[in-house]
Structures are given as C-alpha cells and as structure tokens.
Amino acid sequence: MQGCCTEFDELLRRIRFNADRDLLLLTGDLVNRGPQSLATLRRVRNLAANAITVLGNHDLHLLAVALVPGRHLRRGDTLEEVLEASDRDALLGWLLERPLAHFDAPHHDLLVHAGLVPQWHAHQATQLAGEVEQALRRDPRALLESMYGDEPDEWDDSLEGKGRLRFIINVLTRLRVCTAQGRVDLRQKGSPDEARAPWMPWFKVRARASAPVRVVFGHWSTLGLYRDDGVLCLDTGCVWGGALTAVTLDDPEAPPLSVPARTRQEP
Predict the structure, then answer these.
(1) Which residue from 103, 165, 176, 257 has the highest number of Cβ atoms inside 10 Å of its Cβ?
(2) What are the DSSP E strand ranges found in 141-213?
(3) pTM for the whole structure
C-alpha cells in the first residue's frame, strides 16, 4: 500500500469487506513514498485479527530509522508523520511483531513481500523468516543495524550470524531476480523482460522447491498483477499512479478488483 490509505479504504468498500467473514492478507510495505503512512498503519493495526501483513523492506526501513541511532530518512521517504506521531511507540511495537512470511498450510498459500530463492520450500521459508523475527524482537537495534547490504548473495545452509539473517531479509523483502543456483542480484529493479541470462524472475526457476504452493507477493510494481507459475503478484503500483488491487484467494478464477490511484509519486 505504501501509504495509500484512501485507496485502501475505497478498495475495502469495493470488495464489500466484512469483519465477521473476511481475512485480509497484505503483502507488506504498508508505509513510505505515499502520502498517508501514518493513517495506513493505524488502519491496518485497527483491523486486528482480520488482517495479516508481512514485513516489507520499507516497513523495516521505518523501524531502522526510528530505532537505530544515526540512521536517517532517505530522499523520497514520507515517514516523518509516523516518527512524530503521539502513538508512534505503539505503532512501531505492533510493526515489530509482524512476520516476514505467513504460510496458510490448509490453503497452500505462502505470503511474503518479495520472493524466495529456488532452494527454499514453504516450510523452510517460514522457519527462516522465524529466525529473523526472533532476532528482531529480541534485539531490534542489533538486527536493524546489520540488515543493510547486498552480501552474501547466494544461499548456503551453513551461513551463520549477521550474514545469514541479512540474506534471509534480502530475499523475503527485496528479491526480484536470481539464478537457477540461487544467486541473487538485488540491484535489478526493471521489468521481468529486462532480466538477461543467467538472471531470471525468481518464480521462473524450474523445479523451485516452493512450486507446490501458491506464493502471494508484492514488491515488483513493474511486474504488476501476475497470476501464473504458481504465484500471485499484487503490486499494481498505486503509489506510482497505478492502482491498488485485491484478489479473492478462495476463487483462483475470480477477476481482480482495483482502485485507481488518487495521487502519484515520481519513481
């Protein structure tokens, strides 16, 4: 959503959201770039058990700016309102408790913000996300201080310490392309067609371990709405002037519902 709360409220009306019946699965990046990060955080938090959201890279960036001395806002950030809010501590505390991955085993749906390397199956991805979640809740400052950076760039079960946690965070919140062996390039941010061998969209790797489940994600606005290869991408670029989109997970054939953006940021 990236701070597009007006569009979110309109989308809830469009899908006829009912708190007695419906569960919302949100793909992360609730905040930043858009104009209503504070309102969005409050809105989703107030939904309580009716909404499950995973952490995105912008959510983690907010936590780092708020909790790590010397970590400052970047050009284009729109997080000041959150940092100055009277309920800042409550909102940040709630955000710290969000998962990096959510696996709905009965429905075979895995919710992440960005993607998975080919070696990770759904249960493993959830377990690895849990390692980060425990570290984040145990010592937020230490985890957030060490999460920035693009190395290591390839998965190995023997990875340990800060490098292991950084790799897990980067995959779950920043990944777009990788190689068949699981090496990642986090600098590529263009459309899937721009990836050149050996790089490919992470979900195009043959025989990836997560193929038996449906992976629901966002993060990749130049990919847009995508339903194929056992995945569902929901980032239709609302903050960039596109739309905010919802899909009924109970019915794979149901058409998506979208609300056009009211405003737009320049990429």
Answers:
(1) 176
(2) 177-178, 184-185, 200-201
(3) 0.96
